[in-house]
Amino acid sequence: MLPDIALHRPASLAAAVAGLDWDHVGYAGGTELVPALRLGVRRPTALIDLKRLPELSGIEEAVDGDTETLSIGALTTHRQAAASPAVRRLAPMLADVVAHVGNVRVRTTGTLGGNLAFAEPRSDLATVCIALGAGVDVAGPRGHRHVSVDDLIVGPYESSLEPDELIVRLVVPTPHDPGARYWKLQTMERPTLGVAIVPGEEGVTVVVGAAAERPVRVVVPSGADAETALDAFCAGVELISDMTGSADYKRAVLRHHLAGELLGRRAA
After folding, report:
1. Could you tell me the residue range of the domain that residue 13 belongs to?
2. Which residue, 174, 199, 224, sits at the end of a domain?
3. Which residue in 111, 147, 199, 225 has a CA-CA distance of 20 to 30 Å to 136?
4. Per residue in 219-244, pLDDT tens?
5. Which residues of 80-96 are buried (b: 16+ CB within 10 A; e: fewer)?
6. pLDDT at position 265, please?
7. 167 and 62 within one domain
8. CB neighbours (10 Å) of residue 110?
9. How confident is the model at residue 219, as a pLDDT?
10. What distance in Å separates the CA atoms of residue 173 and residue 40, rounded to the nearest whole number?
């Protein structure tokens, strides 16, 4: 049974922000919050309903000089993002990933902003956003700020958001290299290992998620140094043993997959 909790429905973003604190928590899809309430991990006295705030909705393309970005409202569900022509055209890897997150219920009700704000350690979305160099626009009583998703995710279920701040939009730089891709090993409801790969001028950006306390990012150089760098990364990355497999098992799977992706062969 869920505890008795008050519900507030602010009419504006300013009013929503003014009402937020540790005991008054923002609420949209609830796919992460409701389980936390049932487990007693969070015990707020009130929920701030964000679902009616237009500032948190919509998917827009923006151009600033030579920079093109995709701006996605925090209330956008995984299903809406996957079906968006703009997301599919400008960030196809992101569109493909959100189309396969969780299950139908999660994709239909869960929001991108809520997923990132909750800092779920097995989040496909966070791993991909870090690989794409995405950030979030954050609103709070001290004003607005922009923070990269890499800096947003501090640890398991821990973000750099203050209790009185909320994510307004996800901002994704575009366009992306057509070679960007995401792979995951999944035997249970959440992935055991997720790997995002984005080619770039300085090498290949690799972000490993689901198997560590937070997504881990590295740039593997192209050419003769690639295998040495790959070996060093796989040997040194701190992975977690859990019910889905040991750290050594995940490390072996990671090395095998990246050898095929980056070196053009499979490790023995």
Report:
1. 6-49
2. 174
3. 199
4. 999 887 889 999 999 999 999 999 99
5. bbbebebbeebbebbbb
6. 59
7. yes
8. 24
9. 94
10. 38
Please indicate, yes or no, whether residues 63 and 147 belong to a single structural domain of this protein: yes
Q: Which of 156, 162, 177, 170 is nearest to 240 (CA)?
A: 156
Quickly tell me which residue has 């990012």 as its tokens: 217
Say whether the peptide bond before residue 44 is cis (omega within 30 degrees of 0): no
Q: Are 206 and 179 in contact (CB under 8 A)?
A: no
Rounded CA gap, 147 and 158, in Å? 15
**Cα angle, residue 260 at apex, residues 187 and 216 outer, rounded to 5°:** 65
- Give mean pLDDT, residues 9-37: 89
Q: Which two tokens stand for residue 166?
A: 């909320």
Q: What tens digit of pLDDT does each residue of 78-119 get?
A: 999 999 999 999 999 999 999 999 888 889 999 999 999 999
CA dist 265 → 255, 258, 260 (Å): 11, 9, 4
Would you say residue 117 lies in a domain?
yes
pLDDT for position 268? 43
Number of domains in the chain: 3
Q: Do 60 and 40 share a domain, yes or no?
A: no
* Mean pLDDT, rounded, of the chain: 91
